Amino acid sequence: MADVIVSNVPGSFPWGVLHERHPALIARVRDATPYGPGRRGALDALLGEIDGAIGPLAPGAADRGVWEAWGSEKYVGRPWDEVPFLWAESYFYRRLLDAVGYFGPGPWRGIDPFAPFKAAELDGLAPPVAGLEEQALLHASLWGNRADLGFRISAGEAGLGERVTGLVADDSAGLWAVLDRGAPGRLCVVADNAGPELLPDLLLADQLLAAHRVSEVLLHVKPYPYYVSDATPADVIACLRRAGEAGKRLWQAMADGRFIVRAHPFSCAPLPYQDMPDDLRADFGSATLTIMKGDLNYRRLVCDRHWAATTPYATVTGYFPGPVAALRTLKSEVVVGLDEATVAALDAGGQSWRTAGTHALIQV
Ligand SMILES: O=P(O)(O)OC[C@H]1O[C@](O)(CO)[C@@H](O)[C@@H]1O
User: What residue ranges of the chain are covered by domains with CATH 3.40.50.10880?
Assistant: First the structure.
């Protein structure tokens, strides 16, 4: 089994996320909302902690027991970059919510610290284009994953690189084949970012429901703000309002129970999907197909390990309780299921294809 990724190599991608992206994010959050001295002090304290040891959750945190079960007893007190990268990054977002008082008793309770960034993106969204074919909608949903505000914070002035035509792996034919096997059934979509990614996800869901290619869509979103732009139920409602006729149909489908939104606690867990609880396993097991959106879900799906890129996708995801497709633009080093010639050609062009958000894949 390949080793779990940690962040302790200076200059490596995970190290950069912990030591460069996170401080930049704290500064952006500090500026975006008029927090008072208490919250600002807590953000500064979190910033000061990044080069030291991982601190505990706020006293009285309602989810302390949940986090203990997810590993905090093992990792709190250790240096941030010596614990699994997946765990450290996820816990950072939970601590950021403590710092801004998201779970506290004060006035900032329930105020999404990333809302100003998400709102700016939503305001800039073009109205949806009607009449796209299903394959075009699938690609819109795939490339919508470039819309990741956390990633953009470190992309800096240069912004996102040009997207590369052609996918590093494309099993879209396999995806449609799974979906069309047997009578129309349930499609699970594990959403990633709000706004420019969620809108095409919703358009795809609407089209598949309208064409009776699926009988039901179950959309998993995050129960609280996470990884900057990740979609929460509030973001789904905001996006439905922007989705024109498709939004109205989905609104009705929610009322009818054909479009279901879930915000399961495990969606914000710092763990691979291999460790999912039984109720989530049952959800995914009941679906004709589950579509995992985005880079973080991919990392969780393949357990965030140093796999050789040619390791078969089916081997690594074999534990999943039903057919699972990954739609992802590449924004971290982990990748599986590529053929040798593809890897050689990509490597010949430099390593940034794994992390620059310029390349994408569809795997089943
Ligand atoms: O929104 P996504 O596609 O899950 O990306 C999450 C971001 O966080 C990371 O998982 C690591 O910071 C990157 O891979 C990516 O930039």
Answer: 127-363
